[in-house]
């Protein structure tokens, strides 16, 4: 165990994960200052939770079915998300999230560096550590047998995992098709996707991502029998983060594509409502149709 920083979790495997989180946060901040790219936390987002969960499962000698199940689910989540991020060029030089440039322009260089020091690197890394923290509660109660609640949590996690996979695949195919048309000099009639799962809500992948960590918390409940404990802060903070991130993403999309307002008027933002259209809104202007 690392445990070079004294804190309430010192001596526990998730305390080791916290120490590792601090190291990773510092390295991510230093890398951003040196390279002037600010997506290092984004690149580490899907890599850290599997490592944290495996540290905890290994401490129990992989003898706890619940901890093993949690580690397997989070590892699968991390592998898929890492693959999706990599194919979009996120790990390549210059693969910075376009939203950071927009924020930099809005708040200026001094404000942005302050934001980077407080949130972009360390803040986001702490959030990552927090939303995986139910594995610590499960470790404390590692002798508790699997329960029906664990089965529900695992099943819903898998459903949401598949939902995010499908949404990301639909977005990938749409963007690749759009790119081919632009490269070929063809007319692009749909600038943004509104079909498939994106007909149910504007950000189905975000909904599934949040949902996986909501139900991940149920493993902590199943282990301890306690519905409320501090490890629930993770999915709460993550949900708040996605609210702000979604608002920023949509404001940038709307500035680029005014017709996006029609899509906003007819389709829920995050809550999937298939076959339901809001009254008073016009149908989307064939955006996203192939």
What would you say this structure looks like, in words?
The structure is a single chain. This protein is mainly alpha-helical and 290 residues long. The chain has eleven helices and no strands. It has helices at 13-35, 40-44, 48-59, 65-87, 98-120, 122-131, 134-140, 148-183, 204-224, 233-256, 260-266. 36% of the residues are buried. Residues 279-290 have low confidence and may be disordered.
Keywords, separated by commas or semicolons:
290 residues, single chain, mainly alpha, disordered C terminus
What is the structure about, briefly put?
The chain is mainly alpha-helical and 290 residues long. The chain has helices at 13-35, 40-44, 48-59, 65-87, 98-120, 122-131, 134-140, 148-183, 204-224, 233-256, 260-266.
Task: Give the CA-based shape.
Answer: globular
Distance between the termini: 53 Å
Task: Provide mean pLDDT, rounded.
Answer: 90
Low-confidence stretches: 279-290
Q: Could you describe the largest sheet, including whether it forms a barrel? A: none
Rg (C-alpha, Å): 20 Å
How many helices?
11
Strand content: under 5%
For the secondary structure, the number of strands is 0
How do the SSEs run, as a string of H and E?
HHHHHHHHHHH
How would you classify the helix and strand content by structural class? mainly alpha
Helix content: 55-70%
């Amino acid at each position: 165990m690392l445990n070079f920083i004294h804190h309430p979790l010192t001596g526990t495997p998730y305390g080791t994960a916290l120490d590792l989180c601090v190291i990773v946060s510092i390295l991510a901040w230093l890398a951003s200052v040196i390279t002037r790219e600010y997506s290092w936390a984004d690149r580490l987002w899907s890599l850290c939770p599997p490592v944290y969960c495996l540290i905890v499962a290994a401490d129990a000698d992989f003898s706890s079915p619940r901890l093993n199940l949690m580690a397997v689910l989070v590892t699968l989540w991390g592998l898929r998300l890492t693959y999706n991020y990599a194919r979009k060029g996120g790990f390549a030089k210059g693969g910075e999230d376009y939203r950071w440039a927009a924020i930099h322009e809005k708040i200026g260089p001094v404000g942005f560096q302050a934001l980077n020091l407080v949130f972009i690197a360390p803040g986001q890394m702490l959030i990552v550590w927090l939303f995986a923290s139910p594995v610590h509660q499960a470790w404390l109660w590692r002798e508790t047998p699997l329960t029906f609640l664990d089965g529900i949590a695992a099943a819903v996690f898998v459903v949401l995992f598949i939902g995010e996979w499908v949404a990301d695949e639909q977005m990938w195919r749409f963007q690749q098709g759009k790119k081919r048309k632009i490269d070929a000099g063809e007319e692009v009639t749909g600038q943004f996707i509104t079909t498939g799962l994106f007909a149910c809500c504007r950000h189905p992948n975000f909904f599934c991502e949040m949902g996986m960590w909501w139900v991940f918390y149920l493993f902590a409940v199943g282990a301890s029998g306690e519905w409320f404990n501090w490890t629930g802060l993770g999915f709460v903070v993550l949900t708040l983060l996605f609210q702000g991130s979604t608002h920023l993403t949509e404001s940038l999309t709307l500035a680029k594509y005014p017709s996006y307002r029609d899509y906003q008027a007819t389709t829920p933002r995050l809550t999937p409502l298939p076959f339901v259209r809001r009254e008073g809104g016009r149908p989307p202007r064939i955006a996203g149709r192939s």
